[in-house]
Amino acid sequence: MFLRTFAALAAALALASASLAQPAARSDLESRAPPDLQVWVTSSTDFCVILPRAKYSTIGDSEFPGGAKSYCTKRYDSSQGKVPAKFFTSGPFVSKARGKSGGRQVQLTGCINASASPRLQPNDGGGQYDSAPGGTDGKGNPAGSVCLGYNHYVQIVEPDANRICIRCCDNQSDCPLQFDTSGCKKIIPGRYDGC
Ligand SMILES: *[C@@H]1O[C@H](CO)[C@@H](O)[C@H](O)[C@H]1NC(C)=O
Ligand SMILES: *[C@@H]1O[C@H](CO)[C@@H](O)[C@H](O)[C@H]1NC(C)=O
């Protein structure tokens, strides 16, 4: 009886350490993504979003290889841009509640002043950035972009509606890619106070 319990415990421990080992292997892979293609959402003051690389671009016009990159509040590499001051007019709001699938996820939502970023056109209807298998070649948009600590991400920017949202997910079903014209409120429900 005791032996059997011990064997079960040992098996459970082996399983647990196997699943603990996985994120480490994944972050090795992630850290190989160039810094300007990495995003993360750690808190409402420590995060990155993808924006066009060129000035006064629409999201659509930035959807080519090299057309967009990460902009962070606490960048660690000079290839990453900075989130402009006064970009958010409400929020950003961060939630780490689990996804519908039960998988881990984190999301950041809020209202923006598109005019506060020299990367955006305020009258642009916006678009979507995402990790693989998004993008025209299935490598993500921008190609090779990743969200640190998670398997997938999806981000929408709606300059004309003053909204931005990003969600990083372990399960792809929590970061759907096929609703790219639906907007933040549909794809990433959350707090958008005032927009
Ligand atoms: C992801 O979520 C879907 C839908 O809830 C589920 O069927 C699938 O098994 C999940 N995949 C993983 C890898 O957990
Ligand atoms: C948006 O940003 C622009 C440029 O910095 C500024 O002139 C304008 O007052 C801001 N609008 C709002 C509503 O904050």
From TrEMBL:
Signal peptide span: 1-21
Where do the record's region annotations for Disordered lie? Answer: 115-135
- Keywords of the record: Signal
Source organism's superkingdom? Eukaryota
What name is this protein filed under?
A: Uncharacterized protein
Q: Which species is this UniProt entry from?
A: Tilletiopsis washingtonensis
